[in-house]
Write a structure and sequence with these properties.
Strand order of the largest sheet: 19-18-17-16-15-14-13-20
Number of domains: 4
Distance between the termini: 19 Å
Structural class: alpha+beta
Radius of gyration: 26 Å
CATH class of the largest domain: Alpha Beta
Strand content: 25-35%
CATH superfamily of the largest domain: Bacterial extracellular solute-binding protein, family 7
CATH architecture of the largest domain: 3-Layer(aba) Sandwich
Largest sheet: 8 strands, antiparallel
């Protein structure tokens, strides 16, 4: 069946649950250190597109691997819930029923599941510094709050620090209580946060990730809450809503690490010890978060964000405006007691140092077109090209200052160097088009692009474009000198058409009790050509090569898939998954040999 785009999406959701035990693996044979001879993989549900949006959770996953010497690994299953308003609730349910081994969610969501013990952590403007967040975690309060999670069918491994969430405005900074009135304001699912937003006279709207971007683009949202580094990591958010209230800390995101109780019991004592130690160490990362925020501020400003600070009087008026939300929280005796304990800690804990905000990062945000699309990771790297006098003469450029060597760095939507000005800019991909925004010149330049097997970018200007810009920026191919697919990679062409069939027997073998067996056999046809892939079902995107690895950017799912590949004498392609990757993707993309048919 060539309708692969629809089938793949459905399969990933169904196969993931069916593969529970297989995905985790058994405890395996024991080595002398008490670890597993074959690595045990624990799958962690992550609602974001990548773990780097939650630094303490990312640290936890990495630390488990380090402590165990690779015997125990945490594999993130990204995009869990597909941006649905109940995505975090889905994580709790999936962890409880064994669909995944581990998961993380913000403490905010538990009050929507009838579990109120975490409410004090996101009481508005209570925990308003990284110093206090660290003190709260050290006090043992979050550990006490986890007692009772078994009632939801999950075990709590720890509560980790995360970013202080600030109001982000579309048209202006959201500082004073009056600024909130009449706004439609995006938040994640949480009864407490909804009540706090309503207390300020705004209308809360549950929206995250892709849905939030759609609503911002359409004008359905006037603002939302997030941390500075999450805002900075997505250039689209910076362009759609550039105004950050730098010292209005609404609440912290604090992340609860969850485990399936049965899966946890099935681990050895050593394996459980590695998980527990990694969680304890990750819980101490508040200082690292403060440093990350300070660094992100500069990058965010360069991308076009603008910052404003509220006065002490304004902060006091905001706290007073939250009185109805506190009255609601204090009706629960246990929450009231936790609030009192945190207030006591707050009185004995100094505030964070004020963020240093350059004057150039304040005031009116630069006007620019919204950059839509994705920022595929395989474009990350450093590129170089040289314009010679002969090149200039050929296009009629009268300048004699050649040769000129240009070096451009691309990373996660941010660009520096080259012809785009000293302030750098941003970029994003929409299909076969790559759009660059220069902050210094306040211009957008769009090109069609292809990527060859060595990572070189071939760029064709899309009119209208100034001829000087077209020559200076895009006349020569950009040779990749650092990053995935750089020139050191071996030359190999995978251009061609490939086909394979997934049978009912394949599904049974790969997925015990596999659902939807009546949809098999499935005929899958892929075309690879000069860095682009497609199939008749409409799934299409860009791929790149890095040594023996092929990286597919899959815009339809919001993430990349990486495989090791080999080519036999007939040109057939064998793919071997590079973790982390969910089992549905592994089966659909790499279970069978891709036979070259053209």
């Amino acid at each position: 069946m060539d309708g692969m785009k629809t089938r793949l999406a459905a399969f990933v959701l169904t196969a993931t649950a069916a593969l529970g035990a297989a995905a985790c693996g058994g405890s395996g044979g024991q080595d002398k250190a008490g670890g597993a001879a074959t690595p045990v993989v624990l799958r962690l549900a992550n609602t974001n597109g990548d773990l780097d949006f939650t630094p303490a959770v990312e640290y936890f996953a990495s630390r488990v691997n380090q402590l165990s010497g690779g015997h125990l690994r945490v594999e993130a299953v990204n995009g869990w819930g597909d941006s649905a308003p109940d995505a975090e609730q889905q994580v709790v349910r999936a962890t409880s029923d064994g669909g995944v081994d581990l998961g993380w969610v913000g403490t905010r969501v538990f009050d929507t599941l009838g579990y109120k013990r975490f409410q004090a952590l996101t009481a508005p403007m209570l925990v308003d510094s990284y110093t206090l967040e660290h003190a709260v975690i050290r006090s043992g309060i979050p550990a006490q709050m986890m007692h009772g999670l078994d009632g939801l069918g999950v075990a709590g491994l720890g509560v980790l620090p995360d970013g202080l969430r600030k109001p982000i405005g579309v048209k202006k900074p959201i500082l004073r209580p009056v600024d909130w009135r009449g706004l439609t304001f995006g938040t994640l699912r949480s009864n407490g946060q909804v009540a706090a937003i309503r207390a300020l006279g705004a209308t809360p709207v549950e929206a995250q990730w892709k849905d939030r971007e759609r609503r911002l683009t359409s004008g359905a949202l006037n603002g939302f809450e997030t941390s500075i580094w999450v805002h900075q990591q997505n250039p689209t958010l910076v362009h759609l809503a550039p105004y950050v209230a730098s010292n209005v800390n609404l609440w912290p995101q604090m992340d609860v690490l969850l485990a399936n109780p049965a899966r946890l019991r099935a681990l050895t004592a050593a394996q459980r010890g590695w998980l527990e130690q990694a969680a304890r160490e990750a819980a101490t990362r508040s200082a690292a978060l403060a440093e990350k925020e300070a660094k992100a501020l500069g990058d965010s400003c360069a991308a076009g964000a603008r910052f404003a600070a509220a006065s002490s009087a304004t902060l006091a008026s905001l706290e007073a405006a939250f009185a109805p939300a506190y009255a609601r929280l204090r009706r629960d005796p246990e929450t009231n007691a936790f609030i009192a304990r945190i207030l006591k800690l707050k009185r004995s804990t100094g505030p964070d140092a004020a963020m240093a905000i350059p004057a150039s990062c304040t005031g009116k945000a630069p006007a620019h077109a919204v950059v839509k699309g994705s920022v595929p990771a395989f474009l990350n790297g450093t590129y170089r090209f040289m314009l010679t006098q002969a090149d200039a003469d050929k296009v009629g450029d009268t300048d004699t200052g050649y040769p000129s060597v240009e070096t451009i760095r691309l990373k996660n939507g941010r660009l520096d160097g080259g012809c785009f000005g000293s302030a750098g800019g941003t970029y994003s991909v929409d299909g076969e088009r790559l759009t660059f925004h220069s902050i210094e010149y306040d211009t957008d330049l769009t090109v069609r692009f292809t990527v060859d097997d060595r990572g070189t970018l071939n760029l064709t200007p899309v009119p209208p474009m100034d001829p000087g810009d077209a020559f200076t920026c895009f006349y020569k191919p950009w040779t990749k000198i650092r990053g995935a697919g750089a020139a050191k990679a071996r030359r190999v062409s995978l251009n061609g058409t490939y086909r394979y069939v997934l049978t009912k027997a394949d599904a049974r073998a790969a997925v015990p009790n596999a659902p939807d067996l009546d949809t098999y056999p499935q005929l899958n046809t892929w075309k690879l050509e000069n860095g682009r892939y497609s199939n008749p079902g409409g799934l299409a995107g860009i791929y790149s090569l890095d040594g023996n690895r092929i990286i597919f950017d899959v815009p339809a799912f919001g993430y990349d898939l990486t495989f090791r590949f080999s080519v036999d004498g007939d040109g057939n392609l064998r793919l071997r998954p590079v973790p982390p990757m969910n089992r549905g993707d592994r089966f659909v993309w790499s279970y069978k040999l891709w036979k070259k048919i053209g």
